[in-house]
Design brief:
It is a single chain. With about 230 residues, the protein is of the alpha/beta class. The chain has 2 domains: about 140 residues, 3-Layer(aba) Sandwich (Rossmann fold), CATH 3.40.50; about 70 residues, DNA polymerase, domain 1, CATH 1.10.150. The protein has 10 helices and 8 strands. The strands form 2 sheets. The protein has a 6-stranded parallel sheet, sandwiched between helices. The protein has a two-stranded antiparallel sheet with strand order 2-3. Helix 1 crosses helix 5. It is elongated. The N and C termini lie close together (about 10 Å). About 40% of the residues are buried. The structure holds 2-phosphoglycolic acid. The site of 2-phosphoglycolic acid has 13 residues, from helix 3. This is phosphoglycolate phosphatase.
Length: about 230
């Protein structure tokens, strides 16, 4: 039931970052191509980069190098040059962060609204913490969340449910009062593994597959739906 006197039905909302709160692929693509160009390798397309998002930025770099060199991820992982290429990419990505990323419409308003409802807010991303921090910083989002868990914050990353369990435990919220909002099959699997409800947005990065295939509890068109729930 909805109505102006109804409270928001969750005490904790956990958001994915890339493709959910922030459109990050264009500047990740720039940083990848800065790196590939420096190695004399062919550029990646934006569509390819969008498909590689989901398992963390280091995995994305490995996928890009495999594609550009015509090898596979295993060969790239075993290659001697990976550490220095990774360090080069790191510089490029830190420099590119904030140049071509943008918040999706309604994000700031939805977060502000949920705050007024006393809802605890978390980011759960597979992005490494050093990049998560830069992206949240350039978009003035660092103070918007009660907890941020990145791909290297815990011994495991999504779809392992440990990240969700950590938030439930930190805020003493039962599973039934927690919601995961994401954009991919990884987010759907994380939420299911943790036993919490999952809503997915169709505007992000789902490795090229339609979001309906993930069978979320709901597909939501945009962030206005979050405010409409109260
Ligand atoms: O960096 C990635 O590949 C994934 O990030 P996400 O978990 O925020 O979608």
């Amino acid at each position: 039931m909805r109505g102006e006197h109804m409270a928001f039905p969750y005490d904790l909302v956990m958001f994915d970052l890339d493709g959910t709160l922030v459109e990050t692929a264009p500047e990740i693509c720039d940083a990848v191509n800065d790196t590939l160009h420096g190695l004399g390798l062919p550029a990646a397309s934006l569509a390819e980069v969008e498909r590689w998002i989901g398992h963390g930025t280091h995995e994305l770099l490995i996928a890009a190098l495999a594609c550009a060199t015509g090898t596979d991820a295993q060969a790239v992982r075993a290659s001697k040059g990976l550490a220095s290429t990774s360090a080069t990419f790191d510089k490029h990505y830190q420099r590119r962060c904030g140049t071509r990323s943008r918040l999706y419409p309604g994000v700031r308003e939805a977060l502000a609204f949920l705050r007024t409802q006393g809802v605890k807010l978390a980011v759960i991303t597979n992005k490494e913490a050093r990049y998560t921090d830069t992206v949240l910083g350039v978009h003035q989002l660092r103070d918007s969340f009660d907890r941020v868990i990145s791909g290297d914050s815990l011994p495991t990353k999504k779809p392992d449910p440990a990240c969700v369990h950590a938030c439930l435990h930190a805020f003493d919220v039962p599973k039934t009062r927690a919601l995961f909002v994401g954009d991919s099959s990884i987010d759907a699997a994380t939420a299911r593994n943790a036993g919490v409800e999952v809503w997915l947005l169709p505007h992000g990065y789902n490795m090229g597959a339609p979001i309906q295939q993930c069978r979320p509890d709901r597909v939501i068109a945009d962030f206005s739906v979050l405010a409409a729930e109260a």
